[in-house]
Design brief:
Blueprint: H1 24-37, E1 51-55, H2 67-85, E2 89-93, E3 95-96, H3 100-115, H4 119-122, H5 124-138, H6 141-149, E4 159-160, H7 164-179, E5 183-193, E6 198-200, E7 205-221, E8 228-233, E9 244-247, E10 261-263, E11 270-275, E12 288-291, H8 297-306, H9 332-345, E13 349-362, E14 370-379, H10 382-393, E15 398-400, H11 404-413, E16 418-419, E17 421-422, E18 432-434, E19 440-442, E20 459-460, E21 464-465, H12 467-472, H13 474-477, H14 486-491, E22 494-500, H15 504-519, E23 524-530, E24 533-534, H16 551-558, H17 560-570, E25 577-578, H18 581-607, H19 620-641, H20 645-673, H21 677-698, H22 703-710, H23 715-718, H24 739-761, E26 770-775, H25 778-786, H26 788-795, E27 797-800, E28 809-814, E29 817-822, H27 829-855, H28 857-862, H29 865-894, H30 956-964, H31 969-986, H32 994-1005, H33 1018-1023
Parallel strand pairs: 1-2, 3-4, 9-11, 15-23, 22-23, 24-25, 26-27
Antiparallel strand pairs: 5-6, 5-14, 7-8, 7-13, 9-12, 10-11, 14-16, 17-21, 18-19, 18-20, 26-29, 28-29
The structure holds one RNA strand.
Length: 1033
RNA sequence: AGGCGGGUAGCUCAGUCGGUAGAGCAGCGGCUUUACACGCCGCGGGUCGCAGGUUCGAGUCCUGUCCCGCCUACCA
């Protein structure tokens, strides 16, 4: 557009013409480069601006963008862009996680495939070199993918969890925890993955429910030969490690056996029969349990209680060790069968039965996890967990949605010590050294001698730390800890931690503990946990199911803006996000919508250049849309502050589409296309102003299309800014609250809506311009007639206050204004009579209900006066309505339909002198409204009764207006009527019928009627009534 | 088994303080209206899982119950 004053920006397309439809693929890549090159993503280490920090949950280096990442990136980018525009020193720190097991597995797999080697063939050093090489080559795809989404991450701060600084932080943390007595090495029963040959934390074990297995029973013969005791197990092979048989201390069947021994049929060992009330449920199985402390967590606890020996029967690859005797060397599953067969040969098999069990599987490789006795490093969590709980309890960190606090609390209250050592190569090697005597020396750097005995031949612990260990330090290590950096003091505690609820336990809880321990302060003020993204059927996306949606496919097809907006608008709290592509498509249409609104504005600007904001008072529509903008800003801002992304997105959507586009632009057209230059300039000025504000409001959600348009706006609307992403977040002052304009517009919208309904339902051809005759209090009439041209444009009905014609007319009334339209010859009298008769019946029924309520002393006495008053007003209105319709029906039935001037639907409309020519178009003089005989309508004060605008207009604002306008009272009552009618209709007495259906909607919602077109089926006819404007709450 | 979340229009979901349910999509009808057919206008569609209770009034609060999902712990 030549009229824009701005320099063509670097990122602007060569052409100034806007494509007829928005093309995200053409636009999006340009702007990301522009922003990044100009450094808009960068946060300052020190700033006068208040800090606002979020660390991106570091994606695995092996990862590529899935919808969970896309959701995370979208929500965090919305927060960050919002706060950045709002004057914060917004820091969004990207990072990548080394993902120990996952990465090592991938490289090992590749090694096997391409070179047929294992990591052991290469040796540790060479293998790690390969992993780093792999990391350099492939790890980081996700970085580019975040750019596609428009994520405004401060790439200058990007970190990797195994970079030097991170390694320093990990060593520092490890040493300090050790020194503080919060880290120890011990032999414990841990989860072991035989496939990956490493220990796992409790959290890394997935429990697969309902696996079909079998419960096998066998007999242990008593040592003294006096009998046997039958036990049941799902793991026969572990009997080789049995060191007791447990029964319930009060079980009469076994009470005499407690203290006796059984003879192990395979090993020949004597095994005690012990009593344990915790382990044994006498009602289950035989009531006797074999106890294998070295291979079962419950049994381990029993062993501790009773001082039982531990007999480990498995090697690290889950084959049986020497303790397995004749089964040594067999795989655990082969041994299972073999043991059963062997026992059977002794005649001790007591049968099997099908049994469902839960299997612990390795989160990474799905192998069945084996509880094993092993020496590992553990973090003692209890003291830290207590601090974390206290910090949450006193509000230092708050959870959104709040309910996650409970989950957090219960988790923290039941934490076991955290096994942090892993038998892997890829990761932070544990900074512990052992001397020949087995003493441990823990140090930040390789020590020269043993801290205990001075031995100089030291070897470092082979193991590495759990990946989550380094992640737990991320909120401060990513900002340079243990160095006291400026960014650390600026951005710690982080303002918000935003992540999926599934890693609350893995990550959030551990960051809380570590942050409090090392920084003395919570790691973040707020935790917002988002839901999981699922497919449209609610199924978890997985490669095996083949229902994975690749976000990049979506952005390629619909644009990143559309995907972002969809994710945000579906991110309602406490619910899974079921992503359906049609929704994304719909939001692409939304981008296109605002694009075209901009095209419209820029087209007019090109034709009539405007170099500064008009100083003229905006039109009524202009004042209205400015007021609505202000409300949209307030609503959106509040929603974002509450992490209600869905509400925020919908508030913007509603404003842009249904208010700005559907109403304001239409209402502005007469002025914009008109001949009056000053009127035109004022309207265009308003349009551009509102559009610019709307773009800023939408920007965090749809950064690309908003920037593209914004850059094309004239400099005076943008205050000369270089990018919308660093423009000021709109405030309420961007819109001018104007209750009066809103009230008047509500009336106009109602009138237009009523006319549209009438026209549509009477089947009046759209091209045919009708003349609507208004009647009502002068001020009300004037509001509409002043806008008669736009009203005509919106509804194709000219509005005059001429004398209503005689003959058959349709009439509708809204907000105290009645509009009568001549329909002689256009409709079917008989059909209208039938419809009106039904309507009359409905209203009478409705009125009856309300009167019953009012007749109840308990209601009148106990309900608030206000409610009672509303109900009374409603009753009065219903009564009035009933009279009108009754008269209308009477006339329709009476055959006095000739031009007697009274066939007008029961409205006694006195003839008034024609005071204006019929409006026929743009050049018509405004109608001067002539007050007519006052009906029982309230006189308008500030504004006419607000109501829900004919369609889709926001309710919130309307509600407010209502609350302050006495004139609204009567209308408010209608809502009560509507509800009452609904209730009536719901009663089982009234079976579904056309009449009842009609009653639900029309009697309640509609205050006036209109005539129906002929040839409509009766049932349908029954529902046709003019929309009652009184919908509001 | 315990904990948490959910069950509202055909679908996906809102619904704040208890005042008598509403968006998007889908559907139906109409529209070559000069920003947009990725559009415009109109319309239909609900026993708010079920049963009780509290209340003048319940989608909303209480009790019970049935389904679905997740988390945690699991019966060897």
């Amino acid at each position: 557009m030549k009229s824009t004053e701005s320099e063509p920006s670097a990122a602007a397309p060569a052409s100034n013409e806007l494509a007829r439809a928005y093309q995200p693929a053409e636009v999006e890549p340009r702007w990301y480069r522009y922003w990044e090159e100009r450094g808009y993503f960068r946060a300052e280490d020190q700033s006068d601006k208040p800090p606002y920090s979020i660390i991106l949950p570091p994606p695995n280096v092996t990862g590529s963008l899935h919808l969970g990442h896309a959701l995370t990136a979208t929500l965090e980018d919305i927060l960050i862009r919002h706060k950045r525009m709002n004057g914060f020193n917004a820091c969004w720190l990207p990072g990548i996680d080394h993902a120990g097991i996952a990465t090592q597995m991938i490289v090992e797999r590749e090694l096997k495939k391409t070179e047929k080697k294992t990591r052991h063939d290469l040796g540790r050093e060479e293998f790690l070199r390969r992993v780093w090489a792999w990391k350099e080559q492939y790890g980081g795809r996700i970085r580019e993918q975040h750019r596609v989404l428009g994520a405004s991450l401060d790439w200058s701060r990007e970190r990797f969890t195994m970079d030097d600084a991170s390694s320093r932080a990990v060593r520092e943390a490890f040493v300090r925890l050790y020194e503080d007595g919060l880290l120890y090495r011990a032999e414990r029963l841990i989860n072991w993955c035989p496939q990956d040959a490493t220990a796992l934390s409790d959290l890394e074990v997935d429990h697969e429910e309902g696996v079909q297995g079998e419960l096998w029973s066998f007999a242990y013969p008593l040592e003294d030969g006096s009998g046997e005791i039958v036990v049941a197990t799902t793991r026969p092979e572990t009997m080789l490690g049995d060191t007791a048989v447990a029964v319930h201390p009060e079980d009469p069947r076994y009470i005499g056996l407690i203290g006796k021994n059984v003879r192990h049929p395979l090993s020949g060992r004597a095994i005690p029969i012990i009593a344990d009330a915790i382990l044994v449920d006498p009602a289950f199985g035989t009531g006797a349990v074999k106890v294998t402390p070295a291979h079962d967590f419950n049994d381990f606890a029993v062993g501790q209680r009773h001082g039982l020996p531990l007999i480990s029967i498995l090697n690290k690859d889950a084959t049986l060790n020497a303790q397995g005797g004749e089964f040594a060397g067999m795989d655990r599953f082969a041994a299972r069968t073999a043991v059963k067969e062997k026992i059977a040969t002794f005649g001790l098999d007591r049968g099997t039965q099908p049994h469902k069990l839960a299997l612990g599987r390795c989160q990474r490789c799905r192998a069945v996890v084996e509880p094993m006795i092993s020496t590992q490093w553990f973090v003692k969590v209890e003291p830290m967990a207590k601090r974390a709980l206290a910090a949450v309890a006193n509000g230092d960190t708050r959870f959104y949605p709040e309910s996650w606090k409970n989950t957090f609390d219960r988790w923290m209250e039941n934490l076991h010590d955290w096994c942090v050592s892993r038998q892997l190569w890829w990761g932070h090697q544990i900074p512990a050294w052992y001397c020949g005597a087995g003493h441990v020396t823990v140090a930040r750097a390789a020590p020269h001698q043993c801290g205990t005995c001075g031995d100089t031949s030291l070897t470092q612990d082979d193991d590495v730390l759990d990946t989550w260990f380094s992640s737990s330090l991320w909120p401060f290590s990513a900002f340079g800890w243990p160095e006291q950096t400026a960014s650390l003091s600026s951005f710690y505690p982080n303002t918000v931690m935003e992540t999926g609820f599934d890693i609350l336990t893995f990550w959030v809880s551990r960051m809380m503990m570590m942050g409090l321990h090392f920084m003395g302060e919570v790691p973040f003020r707020t935790v917002f946990l988002h839901a999981m993204v699922r497919d449209e059927k609610g199924e978890k996306m997985s490669k095996t199911k083949g229902n994975v949606i690749d976000p990049l496919d979506v952005t390629a097809k619909f644009g990143a803006d559309a995907l972002r907006f969809t994710l945000a608008s579906m991110a309602a709290q406490g619910r899974d996000i079921k992503l359906a592509l049609p929704r994304v498509e719909g939001n692409k249409a939304f981008a296109n919508k605002i694009w075209n609104a901009a095209r419209f504005a820029l087209m007019h600007l090109q034709q009539h250049p405007l170099d500064k904001k008009s100083s003229a008072t905006p039109s009524l529509a202009g004042r209205w849309i400015l007021s609505r903008l202000g409300r949209a800003v307030t609503e959106t801002t509040q929603a974002l502050d509450d992490f209600r992304f869905d509400q925020a997105a919908m508030a913007v959507y509603q404003f842009v589409w249904h208010e700005l586009c559907d109403w304001y632009i239409e209402l502005a057209k007469p002025a914009l296309y008109g001949e009056d230059a000053s009127v035109r300039a004022a309207e265009l000025s308003t349009l551009l102003t509102v559009l610019e504000g709307a773009l800023r409001l939408l920007h965090p959600f749809m950064p690309f299309v908003t920037e593209e348009i914004w850059q094309r706006l004239p400099a005076w609307t943008r205050r000369g800014g270089d990018s919308i992403m660093i423009a000021k977040w709109p405030s309420a002052s961007d819109g001018v609250p104007d209750d009066q304009a809103e009230g008047k517009m509500a009336l106009v919208m109602d009138v237009v809506g009523a006319m549209r309904t009438m026209r549509s339902e009477c089947g009046i051809p759209p091209g045919k311009i009708l003349t609507g005759h208004m009647r009502g209090p002068a001020e009300l009439v004037r509001v509409v007639s002043d806008l008669s041209v736009p009203v005509a444009l919106l509804s194709q009905v000219n509005v005059t206050n001429q004398s209503p014609p005689g003959g058959l007319v349709a009439a509708t009334s809204v907000a105290g204004v009645e509009i009568v339209v001549q329909l002689e010859g256009l409709i079917d009298v008989e059909a209208e009579r039938a419809r009106a008769t039904k309507e009359l019946a409905r209203i009478e029924k409705e009125l009856e209900q309300v009167q019953v309520r009012l007749g109840s002393a308990s209601f009148v006495d106990r309900a608030p006066a206000e409610v009672v008053e509303k109900t009374r007003a409603n009753a009065a209105e219903l009564a009035e309505k009933r009279e009108r319709i009754a008269r209308h029906v009477k006339r329709l039935s009476g055959g006095h339909m000739e031009n007697n001037g009274n066939g007008n639907f029961g409205f006694d409309i006195p003839p008034t002198a024609p005071v204006a020519t019929e409006l026929t178009g743009v050049e018509s003089a405004p109608v001067v409204a002539e007050p007519v005989a006052p009906v029982a309508e309230p006189v308008m004060e500030e504004a006419p009764p607000a109501r829900k605008p004919a369609h889709k207009a926001p309710r919130a604002a309307v509600k407010k207006v209502v609350a302050t306008k006495p004139a609204a009272k009567k209308k408010v009552a209608k809502k009560v009527a509507k509800k009452a009618a609904k209730k009536v209709a719901k009663r089982p007495v009234a079976k579904k019928s056309a009449a009842k259906k009609g009653a639900k909607k029309s009697a309640a919602k509609k205050s006036a009627k209109k005539v129906v077109a002929k040839k409509k089926p009766a049932k349908k006819v029954a529902r046709k009534t003019v929309k009652k404007p009184a919908r509001r709450r």
